[in-house]
Task: structure prediction
Amino acid sequence: MKIAVVGAGLMGSGITQQCAQSGYPVVNIDTFAAAQEKSKTNLKLLFDKKIAKGKLTAEDAAEVLARISYSTDYAAAADADLVIEAVPEKIELKKEVFSKLDGVCKPDCLLLSNTSGLSISELAAATKRPQQVIGTHFFYPAPVMKLVELIRGLVTTDEVYLKAKSFIESLGKTTVDAPEYPGFIVNRILVPMQNEAAFMVMEGCSPEDVDNAMKLGTNMPMGPCELTDFVGIDVMLATMTGLYNGFHDSKYRPCPLLERMVKAGHLGRKSGQGFYKY
Ligand code: 3HC
Result:
C-alpha cells in the first residue's frame, strides 16, 4: 500500500514519519520545498536523539528514512492508494488541495483529511468522489499520541470508513468515532479549557501558576498554557474561533489575549515566544 501525505508542517511531518515507521512507503507532497527541508532536518535530529538514547538503531532509522520520498508536485500522488491531506486549517486551501488530488489520484484512492474541526462534507464536495473522503484528526506530536478521531462526512461509505479505520489501526493508533461538528470530541473539550486558562492569565494569574495547578492538580503532562505554546497560539485560536463560529454560541468566545498574542507574532514554541520564552 502506497501512501501520500500532503503538507510538511508539524502535523504532515509527524504523519509522514508515523506511516514510514509503520512500514509504508510514503511520499510527502508540499509545494514549499523549504518546508520539506525543515521537516527532513527535524526528523533526522529526532532520530539522532533516539539513537543517542539507545531507543533506535542507526540501521532502523536509515530504513525508515529510506521509505520517505518528497515531491513538490501533486502528480506524485498518482499511484497512491491512500492520501492524507495535512495542510493548514483553512477551508479554501483544503478544498483546493482536495480538488487537485481528485484530478491526479487513482479512482479507488481513499482521501483522508487531517483536520481539527473543519467540515468533512464540505471538503468532500470539492471532489467528484465525496463518498471516498473521510476525516482523521491526529494529535500533536502525531507519532507519539495514541488517538485518532475518525469523522465521517455525510456520504462517506461504510467501506471507506472501515478501510480508513483499519489503516489508522495499522499505524498503532486507537480510533474513536467523532461527530461532524466543530471540535469533534477532544478539541471541543480541551480547547475551551486552554481558552479559559488564557482568560485567567489576562486577568493577572501567571502562566506558571495556571500550569502548575493543572499539572499537579489533574496530572496533565503539560499545563494548558504550555500546551497552547506547544501546538501554536495561532492554531489554538483558529480552533476556538471555529467553535465560536460553528456553534454561534458566546460560551466559545476566543480570549482577546490570544488574539493580541497572534497579532504580535507570539505564536508559542515555533516563534520563540508565547506564554513562555523559548
Ligand atoms: N515528534 C515526534 N516525536 C516526538 C516529538 C515530536 N514533536 N516530541 C517528542 N517526541 C517523542 C520523543 O522522541 C520521545 O520518544 P522516545 O521515548 O522514543 O525517546 C517521546 O516523544 C517523549 O518525549 P520526551 O521524553 O522528550 O518528553 P516527554 O516525556 O516530556 O513527553 C510529550 C513529551 C509526549 C509531548 C508529553 O509532554 C505530552 O504528552 N504532552 C501533551 C501532548 C498533547 O496533549 N497533545 C495534544 C495536543 S492538542 C492537539 O494536537 C489537537 C490539535 O487539533 C490542536
